[in-house]
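Long-time lurker, first post. I've been practising inverse folding by hand and with some scripts of my own, and I keep getting stuck on stretches where the structure tokens seem ambiguous. Below is the full token string for one chain I'm working on. Before anyone asks, I'm not after the true native sequence, just a reasonable design that respects the backbone. If someone could post their per-position residues I'd love to compare against what I wrote down in my notebook.
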């Protein structure tokens, strides 16, 4: 087996050109983006999409915006049906290698029922060109990360894999194009995938481990068997926090498995998956004895003394969970991720900020009036909805995320995720958005009189409840009524919310404490609905009913609170 440090060296050597290219692009974002768009339109001008919108005649960004409309996933239904049936040249000149499932979004509720149920999984086309664009972004990030934290070069890494989606396993109408990847690293391309996979402790078969507790157990088994671990990259920061908590319940079993070279999850794995996972397992009595001596309550830094970096989402609703995770990892660098979606590589940690990945997609920013502008036209402090055009066949596609410009790397905006642009709950006309609710919660917790014990807790979710809303938290404030009053005042900055309360259409805000494992239950619920763990982003707002019972909520402010 080739040592991870040698594989890292080969990977980083290959990725330096991506680092150099992005560094140059960040100094001239307009030129870099214009060149990306010209190449993409030229490449795909003879496709069905290119012919319909006359790509061959587009000679400017202004013409591109006139000819090509803004779209959402639903607008691509006809094209996606053709691709699934095996048609070529629909959206891209490149063959569609895979259809990659991504979870639906919770849409607006307009019927007053608080529904907002998640839509079915979307299937997005994946091409070799799109894979190369993702590899450019990942490569530039890894070179930057290795220069900042050289220790990661010397040992293996864990990158969170997304369990395969059960809904895809039960697909009744087979597609001519394969659905999904066997391994998340397949995004990086045919030659780079084995190189990157050689640095990772998690085998490919882990993706197919189920049920969820068996997947978590097998993941912990991989982690605990790797004392030389240097880098952990996960999506939702609560995912790692949940694993760290779960180890206590399974400790003796885990230690014995490491010692004996076995795998005995609490729920049985599919036999083929069990066999595949066992092929990468070996007995390690020395490590087993070391773990037994450390005990189930050992801090993570004792379990992995060489751990240098943890990477996870850290914006919007993930900010508090990431801070809670960082508090458990003293001495370990905790780096928030950029904005990475199944559709496009949007931004990355680079050069001390989070700039757009200019060589991975073409970006447009929509302001509050719906006007589109290029990244070079962004204003610091402003918020925008992100639109992407990619080599995967998405043209002027509304990604659904809102970002704020917080600074610059070179001449390129550095951004942070604010929330979902398409996540709006509207029971009686209040039209609460994800971004607005997140800001309201932060401001309410910022009032020292309401929360003398600090900022927002790791888990905070506003949900429909009864005739109004409830804020579900896993760490209650010292004065629940004061916090409920502060949050009510913040939410009433929305005229629709204030009007609905004044008319009596919405009752008073409730505050509820939920189970300590709320983050785990949140992940498990969405996973059971057919969403991959890597797709389940932290949220401040949910539109569907049932979260109070689902998370074992208990009301903390039984006295009605009015503004």
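-- Answer (accepted) --
I ran through it position by position. Result:
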């Amino acid at each position: 087996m080739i040592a991870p440090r040698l594989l890292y060296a080969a990977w980083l050597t290959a990725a330096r050109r991506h680092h150099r290219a992005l560094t140059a692009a960040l100094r001239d974002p307009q030129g870099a983006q214009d060149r990306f768009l010209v190449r993409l339109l030229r490449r795909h001008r003879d496709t069905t999409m290119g012919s319909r919108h006359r790509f061959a005649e587009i000679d400017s960004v202004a013409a591109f915006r006139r000819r090509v409309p803004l779209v959402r996933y639903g607008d691509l239904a006809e094209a996606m049906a053709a691709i699934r049936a095996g048609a070529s040249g629909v959206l891209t000149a490149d063959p569609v290698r895979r259809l990659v499932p991504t979870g639906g979004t919770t849409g607006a509720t307009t019927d007053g029922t608080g529904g907002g149920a998640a839509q079915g999984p979307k299937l997005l086309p994946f091409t070799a060109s799109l894979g190369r664009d993702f590899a450019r972004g990942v490569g530039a990030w890894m070179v930057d990360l290795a220069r900042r934290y050289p220790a990661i070069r010397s040992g293996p890494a864990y990158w969170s894999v997304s369990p395969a989606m059960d809904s895809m396993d039960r697909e009744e109408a087979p597609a001519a194009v394969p659905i999904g990847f066997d391994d998340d690293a397949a995004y990086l391309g045919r030659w780079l995938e084995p190189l990157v996979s050689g640095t990772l402790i998690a085998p490919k078969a882990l993706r197919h481990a189920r049920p969820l507790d068996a997947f978590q157990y097998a993941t912990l088994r991989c982690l605990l068997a790797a004392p030389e671990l240097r880098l952990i990259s996960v999506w939702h920061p609560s995912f790692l926090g949940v694993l760290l908590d779960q180890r206590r319940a399974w400790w003796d079993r885990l230690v014995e498995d490491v010692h004996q070279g076995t795998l005995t999850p609490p729920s049985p794995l599919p036999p083929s998956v069990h066999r595949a996972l066992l092929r990468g397992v070996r007995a390690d009595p020395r490590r087993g004895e070391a773990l037994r001596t450390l005990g189930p309550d050992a801090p993570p830094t004792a379990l992995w003394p060489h751990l240098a970096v943890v990477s996870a989402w850290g914006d919007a609703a993930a900010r508090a969970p990431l801070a809670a995770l960082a508090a458990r990892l003293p001495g370990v660098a905790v780096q928030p991720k950029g904005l990475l979606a199944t559709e496009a590589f949007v931004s990355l940690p680079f050069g001390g900020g989070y700039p757009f990945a200019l060589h991975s997609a073409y970006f447009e920013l929509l302001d509050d009036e719906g006007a589109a502008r290029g990244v070079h036209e962004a204003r610091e402090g402003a918020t925008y909805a992100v639109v992407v055009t990619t080599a995967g066949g998405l043209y002027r596609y509304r990604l659904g995320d809102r970002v704020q410009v917080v600074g610059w790397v070179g001449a390129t905006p550095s951004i942070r995720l604010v929330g979902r642009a398409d996540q709006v709950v509207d029971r009686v006309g209040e039209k609460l958005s994800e971004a607005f609710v997140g800001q309201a919660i932060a401001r309410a917790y910022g009032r020292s009189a309401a929360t003398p014990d600090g900022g927002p807790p790791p888990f905070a979710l506003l949900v429909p409840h009864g005739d109004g809303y409830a804020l579900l938290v896993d760490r209650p404030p010292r004065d629940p009524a004061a916090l409920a009053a502060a949050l009510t005042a913040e939410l009433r900055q929305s005229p629709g919310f204030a009007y609905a309360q004044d008319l009596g259409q919405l009752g008073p805000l409730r505050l509820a404490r939920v189970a300590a494992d709320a983050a785990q239950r949140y992940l498990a619920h969405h996973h059971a609905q057919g969403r991959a763990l890597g797709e389940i982003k932290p949220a401040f707002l949910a539109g569907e009913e049932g979260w109070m019972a689902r998370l074992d909520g208990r009301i903390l402010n039984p006295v009605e609170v009015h503004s």
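A couple of notes from the structure itself: Residues 214 and 268 are 7 Å apart (CA to CA). Residues 104-119, 165-172 have pLDDT under 50 and may be disordered. Happy to go over any region you disagree with.
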